[in-house]
Amino acid sequence: MYKTSIRRGHSLFALLSGFFFLFFFSSSVLASPEELEAVRQQVRNKGARWQADETSISKLPAEQRLMRLGFRKESFSVPEGAAVLSATPAAGTTMPTALNYNNDSYVTQIRDQGNCGSCWAFATTAALESQYLMSTKGVGWSTLDLSEQILLSCSNAGNCSDGGYIDLASDFIQSTGLPPASCYAYTEADWTSGPDSPCSGAACTYWQSDTYSIKGWKWVATNSPTADILKSTLNTYGPLVTSMNIYADFYYYKEGVYSYSYGSYQGAHIIEIIGYDDNENCFIVKNSWGDGWGESEPGSVTARGFFRIDYDQIDKIVQFGYYTAAYEGYKGAQNDCAYSLSPESVSVAYSGGYAYVTVSSQPGCSWKAVSNVNWIKAVSGAKGTGEGTLRYYVSANSTSYSRTGALTIAGQTFTVTQAVKRHSFRRWW
Length: 429
What we know:
With 429 residues, the chain is of the alpha+beta class. The chain is built from 7 helices and 20 strands. The longest helix has 20 residues, at 11-30.
C-alpha cells in the first residue's frame, strides 16, 4: 500500500505501477469470457453432459477462486489402523436405482464459505445436520443451521488460508459437537491458541452445553473408492463427506452431469454427497459456494448450489470419492464441560479493592465473566479456556447500606457482599 505522501522522484514510478496493477487485475477478470468459450468448446468436443456458463465463482479473480478450495490433500494420509467400513454390497443385495436425501428433507440450506478455504468445515457440518434431520424424520430442515465457525475457530482442524482435514473436523464433531450458528455466526476467523483466540468470541460463552454431535464416524474409502461402495454406504448411513480434485472448468458449472473437460488443476475440495441416480449414471452433491453457482435439485431445498457428477469421475483425474467418511448417527445434545469457582463467594470491606477468583474446567471448555453491577469489574482474565484466574476490582461503598453483586462465570454465580462504612457519633450531652 502506498503512503499518502510520495516523494516527487518516485511519483512517476508509482503512477506507472498503479496502471500496471489495474491492467493486470482487469485482464485477469476480463479473461473469463475467453476461458468460458474454451470450456464450452471442450464440453462439446468431448460430448460431456453438462452446461458451462458464467457463475458467481467464475467471475472472481483467480486468487479468490483458489480461496474456495480447502482440502490439504497433498499433506494428508489416513493414519495406520484407522477404522474403515466394510461397505462392499453383499452378494444379491439390491439397491434402489436412485436416492436423493433432499427429497426426504434431510439436507439443509445451501451455504457460502466465502473467500476462505473452509469447505472441510461446511461439508462436515452439513453431514452432521443431515444426521440430525434423519433422527427427526426431516423436522426442522428449513431452519437448522449449525456453526461452521466453531469448527474454524475452535477445532484446530484447519484454517482459511491452508484448508483443513475431514478426520480432525469429524473427531471434533464427535467429541465436542457444534452449537447453533446463532452462538457463533460465520466470520472466517481462523483458529489460534490462547484466551483471546477467535474461539473465545462466541456469543454463547459456554456453548459446549448445547451441541449437536454424532455417535461416531468411519472411513468408507480412502484412495480406492467404487461407485457401488459409495452407493451402498449412502443407503446405509445417509449423506457422506467426500473430496474431489477441482479443475478450472468446474468454476463454470451451470447444470447437468459434470465430467472433466478443460483446464488446469486448481486444488482439492471437500463436499457432501446426498444421493445418486443410476439412470443418469451420477452422484448428487451439495457444495458450499452459495446459490450463484451450480444447479437446483428436486426436494426441499430448491436453491442452486448442487451439482451432479458422472460415476466415471472416480477413476479419472478428478478422483471423486477419495477420502469419504460416513457418520454413524446423531448423538444428541451433550455437555461435557463442568465448571467450578474458588471461592464461590466473598465478603469485602467497604473500601473495596482488588481480589481473585479461580475458574476450573476441562481443557477446551471456554468461559467468560460478566458482572451484574457496575461496582464489580473484571480487570484481567475475564475469559479463558480450561483453568484460569480472574482478577476483579470492587469499588468503595459510598452508600449507607451493605450491598450484594455478582459475577456470572460460565453459568456459575460468584457472589460479592460488601459492607457499609460505620460512622462514629459524638455525644453532646
